[in-house]
Amino acid sequence: MNQFPIAIQPYTVRDAISQDYAGTLEKLAGIGFEGIELGLPPEGMTIAKQKELLDRLNLQVIGTHASFDNLDVDFDRLTDYLHQVGGKYITISMRFDSKEDVLRKSEQFNRIGEICRAANTTFLYHNHDWEFAKFEGEYVLDLILRETDPELVKLELDTYWVRKGGLDPSEYLSKLKNRCPLLHIKDVEVGEEQFFAEIGEGILDFKAIAKTAANVGTEWLVVEQDQCRRDPFESLAISYRNLASMDLIRKPANRL
């Protein structure tokens, strides 16, 4: 049986969390999520107060997203933050315009990975669909995997974006033994638009994905839905219920 702790990426409820930070976290915890990818607290809230809120809600910070298409990041500040809240992973996403650009940025990823490892954190790269464009016959993501040290640079693979890029998420994940500790899970609607869907409401086989994730050593499944056709909290609740119905959730003791 392939069961996992389930975390949430609150980008799904970005509007709500910007207006009511504590209330939004309460709603996410109420759905049943055990972990969360979260960054530094909003203005006016200390890290200690944020941690107090999260502890009350039984939400564990598992990591934080550092940046999108920007490597000018204060990694020391983020690792210090994660040490205070108990998280481990620092994630970024990038864009690339040539093979040389991929190679150059992969060198930077290795250096960042070294910084993170020295601070007892782990550096992750999060893909979108453009990493399945090819330069000189190779997928961008394959180039990144080849050019980076697997001990320093790991992935937070995203099932939706793998499928949007034209590949099978379970098949691609199978190549990532001990290299994909966090897996972003999103479904894909039927049809040419390939719009985001709640987990279990689209075309992806999450039982197969979970089986592969267990085989490669994935630690957490992280629910995210970039855009929703209904209220985002309702979408997240549907995803959580469907994961439960598939028997993929390792329920924490206090939520049995």
From TrEMBL:
Pfam families: AP_endonuc_2 (PF01261)
Domain of life: Bacteria
Classification via SUPFAM superfamilies: Xylose isomerase-like
Record keyword Isomerase present: yes
Stored InterPro entries: IolE/XylAMocC-like, Xyl_isomerase-like_sf, Xyl_isomerase-like_TIM-brl
UniProt keyword terms in alphabetical order: Isomerase
Annotated ranges, domain Xylose isomerase-like TIM barrel: 26-225
GO molecular function: isomerase activity
UniProt-recorded name of the protein: Sugar phosphate isomerase/epimerase
Record lineage: Bacteria, Bacillati, Bacillota, Bacilli, Bacillales
